[in-house]
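Here is one chain, start to finish.
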Amino acid sequence: MTIPHTSALEGGIRPHRIDSIQESSGTIDASGTWAPFSSVTKRCDWSPDAGMIARRGIGSVDALGHDTGVETHALTVAYLLQGTLESGTPLYEAFHRDADGLIETRTIVDRETHAKGGTDSNGFRVYTVAEGAKPATARLTGDPGSPEPMVAEIVYHCEKVRSYHISQPAAAATLIASGSGTITVEDDDGVVESFAGTSTAEFTSIDAAYLIEGALDSTIEVTNGNTSEILLTIYGSEKYNGVEGDRGVPTDATRVADWFGTDTFEKFLGDTITYGGGNIALDINSLELSIDNSLASTPKHNTLKQRITEGNRVVQVTATVMGEDESHDQIMRHLQNASADIVWTLDNATITVEDAALITPGNRVVESEGAFMQLSNVFEGTTIAIA
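Its structure:
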């Protein structure tokens, strides 16, 4: 499919909508809700890897071709922290484990909208659809010198991520889907229809199109019934070495404008951080809470997806501090293996890193022209609690 280059370049200033929803047993929870991470997203970064290697053999100095294998996908979402850290919110999930020590997974969809271009000359949308997304690492950073609200960043390892290009119809039209599968299409006005062949409804736009029945081995093209222009292609397994085809952009279960319930952004200035009930230091110049869920990926024989399994949880707090005799207090905490709870009280939540030990103290460095000494200390807790 040839796309006319009559639209604006891809970029962060184009209209974007980044939503996610909890999965249940590897599928989207029908009772769940699509919601944004925040009303302000700072970054969305997809790193795809098809496991590609050069094919080489005896008798040639040059590659004889290239092969792909199981896939590895990382998706990073950074956003301004807003509202509470209640159960069901992405950052809470990154920190939390269930009774079996497992992490919740999500489907994440990023949509970029272009008003011009497309095969029907009425604009198009480019989607990133990430399935089976588990939070590998997460961090929350506070800087009292920054006027901006705190930034939360979550790095997801995903079983499968695909890009979809959907051109918009120039006028209301029925749609024609090639192949024998049943596809569900949804427009911006809430018109939803599942059909095989030709739709009965007319669509003024296409916001989602998802294969719900049929094999994933053949490519499906969705065509404008008025103009015969191809609006969307969902590629079959023949494009992936015969292993596994795609399903498309999931349709809307329930979508809300927010899950945070308030426009209140979290700012670090004014927060309280204690260590064992007292001050962690005289001055805190920055604080970062980080989680590493020690994810491991292992290939499976019948799919391009890898099985993503959580391992040990590592909870750390990195604090840049200074004071009158902080180097003494902090280094002796480390040498004597002292530990205590670190309690970070935010506006809308309280985070407790329990039994935190100073595993890496900052160096005591005295040098010429040094008006003050800062120490970068890394504490590691045994567990984390959010209230």
